[in-house]
Amino acid sequence: MEYWRVLRDHRVSAVLVGDVVANVGDGAIITALPLLTLRIHGDVPAPLAISAVEAAPYVLATALAFTIGLTRLRIPPRVSIIVDCLLRGAVLAGLGLLAMADAITLPVLVCGLLFGSILRMVGVSSRRLVVTELVAPQDRLAANGLLGTSQSLAAYAIGPVIGGVLATGQNPGIALVVDGAAQVLLLAAVFVTPSTAGSVEGNRIPASGLRILRRIPLAARLLVVVFGFNLFYMPVEIALPLLVRGPLHGDGLSLGVIWTGFGVGALIGAVLTGLLRKLPEHRVLVSIIGLWGVVVVLLTFAPSVPYAAVVFFLGGLIYAPFTPVVYTVVQRVLAPSEQQPVLTLWTACSNVAAPLGLALGGPLVQAVGTEGGLVASALLTIALVPLAAVGLRRSRAGGEDAGELVGPGQEGGVARG
Q1: What is the structure's pLDDT at 2?
Q2: Which DSSP helix (H) or strand (E) runs through 70?
Q3: Which residues, at least 6 apart from 92, have a Cβ–Cβ distance to it below 8 Å?
């Protein structure tokens, strides 16, 4: 089995275990941060406060990722993971201790997340570079699938429940301390990998990520699709905790249960991703986008927490293959020396949708209400389907060497634009 072949490499399995533990911590603050924000937002409207806190980790991280993707600036992947673990771990632990002492304010929380996460985006993309560099090209879908499974299991199935329990039974700040401590195992795991894992030989980048991306039409079109998908999803992040606290009459544990439903579904979906390798990738991606929009529509009718958890379970099951398939397609059409600048720029462009979507989503939910925000998110996502279908079909019909959408299992040589 492909997954087992990848896991037999102790270097890969060590990084994946560290990634799982780090993702558990990150999952814990998915529920803890909104609940902490609701405690300390003061006179700031709750939707705006939540959007500011949720967006803060992306701002400087996105700026740094763009700098790497658009220029020849380079941070070795292994180094970026180590520094991210140290910086983010220390800042999260500090914020958590302040919260536990009831000495934290909304500006302190926002600023801490802003500066403490500066290497977060580069570090996450570097994990993918390190892992996929350690496996054979034909095992990249399996490696990307395992990374997706790690995120699904830890960040959405286990972490949110831990965060919900800690936030409800104790103090949301404990979850931040747990997340800070969780970075230690990933830090240790990275030291068993070769110092050159994921690096460009000679530390040289032949061209900026933008220049390479412009030569590969498929990657550019996929980036537009992913950006729109991420952008239109973000109102859900703001509306969900308000939906739980309001119409569903739930608490922090209830929010954790709903996210766990997503995580369990995403775990199953990630494990089954390999079954999609013979299907046309453009159809898989477009179908996921459309079905996710339907899931958000169903969420607006949630009469109870269990119903919402089941709906999010379906959402996780549907969404899980999206990221592994996208990254496998993009990595297949890149030379090894092109991967860090392109993937870092790709990550920055796709993830800039997060702070932008959160910044726009806060006022949107404030204006139209919780259910209205979910409806808007769903309709915008569904409207993306025909645009995505046309754009990705054009690549396939054009027969572009670097842009042909073939089945994930049909590995070929590195394409050139």
Answers
A1: 67
A2: helix 46-70
A3: 25, 29, 116, 176, 177, 179, 180, 183
Residue appearing with tokens 């030989």: 201
pTM (predicted TM-score): 0.67
Residue entry with tokens 């754009």: 391
User: Distance between CA 12 and CA 56 in Å, rounded?
Assistant: 31
CATH of 2-190+206-398, one of 3.40.50.720, 1.20.1250.20, 3.30.470.20, 3.30.420.40: 1.20.1250.20
Q: How many CA atoms lie within 13 A of 185 on its CB side?
A: 17
The Cα 234–Cα 119 span in angstroms is: 21
Q: What span, in angstroms and rounded, lies between the C-alpha atoms of 358 and 51?
A: 5
Rounded CA separation 311/115 (Å): 35
The whole-angstrom separation of Cα 31 and Cα 19 is 19
Alpha-carbon span 216 to 332, nearest angstrom: 11
Instruction: Give the mean pLDDT per block of 10 residues along the chain (417 residues).
Output: 74 86 88 90 87 87 80 79 93 95 94 93 83 77 75 75 79 91 89 59 54 76 85 87 85 82 84 75 87 92 90 91 81 70 73 78 85 90 87 54 40 30
CA pair distance 405, 123, nearest whole angstrom: 28
Produce one character per residue of 273-310: b if its CB has 16 or more CB atoms within 10 Å, e if not: bbebbeebbbebbbbbbbbbbbbbbbbbebeebeebbb
What is d(CA 158, CA 166) in angstroms, rounded to the nearest whole number?
A: 13
For the chain, helix (H) and strand (E) counts, in that order, are: 18, 0
Tokens 């996460």 appear where? 117
Residue 392 to residue 403: CA distance in whole angstroms: 9
Residue indicated by tokens 């801490």: 112
Residues in the chain: 417
- Residue among 212, 213, 210, 395 nearest 286 (CA): 395
| Placement of tokens 């803060």 in the chain | 56
Mention every residue, 6+ apart, whose C-beta is less than 8 A from residue 151: 23, 266, 270
- Rounded CA gap, 38 and 32, in Å? 10
Distance CA 241, CA 267 (A): 22
Q: Domain extents for the chain?
A: 2-190+206-398
What is the distance between the alpha carbons of residues 282 and 386, in angstroms, rounded to a whole number?
A: 12
Residue 23 near residue 155 (C-beta atoms within 8 A)? yes
